[in-house]
Specification:
mainly alpha, two-stranded antiparallel sheet, 5 helices, 2 strands
C-alpha cells in the first residue's frame, strides 16, 4: 500500500469509522435529521446564485452516490463510478434543488431504517477513502453535507 492510500484510509478510520462504530442506527437517524433541518434552514436563507446552486448540486450528487454504495450492502450490484452522474442538471432551479436535497436526505433516512436489520461487517469502497462500513458511510454523508453547506452564502 502506498503512502497516499494509507493516509486516506487512516483519515477514514479516524473521521468516519471510529466515531461511527459506537453509534446506533437510531443515533445516525437523529444526526441525519438534525443536520437536514440545519441545512434546510441555511438553504432557505441563502441567495439563488450560480455558486450556491453548484454547491448544492455537489452535495446532492455525493449523497445520492453514497446511497448507491449503501445499497450494495443491501444486495445491489457495486458500481465503480463517481458522483457526477448523480448530480441534478445544471439548469435545475434553486427551489427545485432545495426540494431535491430534502428528498435525497429522506432517501438516506429510509436507508438507515433498512440498514438497521443488517448484521454484517461488510464494507463498501469509497473511491478515495477505501472501504467504509454502513455507519461509516452514513457519518461520511452527514459530515460532507454539513461541511459543504457552510459554503452556501446568503
Amino acid at each position: 500500500m502506498d503512502f497516499k492510500t494509507w493516509l486516506y484510509q487512516a483519515v477514514a478510520w479516524l473521521a468516519f469509522e471510529r466515531p461511527a462504530q459506537w453509534r446506533s442506527y437510531g443515533d445516525m437517524d437523529f444526526l441525519l435529521r438534525g443536520s437536514s433541518q440545519t441545512i434546510s434552514q441555511r438553504l432557505d436563507n441563502a441567495a439563488d446564485s450560480e455558486v450556491n446552486r453548484k454547491k448544492l448540486r455537489h452535495i446532492i450528487g455525493i449523497e445520492r452516490w453514497g446511497q448507491q454504495r449503501l445499497r450494495v450492502l443491501l444486495g445491489d450490484n457495486f458500481q465503480a463510478d463517481e458522483h457526477y452522474s448523480y448530480k441534478p442538471a445544471e439548469n435545475t432551479s434553486w427551489q427545485d434543488l432545495k426540494e431535491t436535497f430534502i428528498q435525497t436526505r429522506q432517501a438516506s433516512l429510509e436507508l438507515v431504517n433498512q440498514l438497521r436489520e443488517l448484521n454484517s461487517n461488510v464494507k463498501v469502497p469509497h473511491n478515495q477513502l477505501g472501504p467504509l462500513s454502513a455507519k461509516g458511510w452514513l457519518r461520511y454523508l452527514n459530515l460532507h453535507a454539513t461541511i459543504e453547506s457552510r459554503g452556501i452564502n446568503a
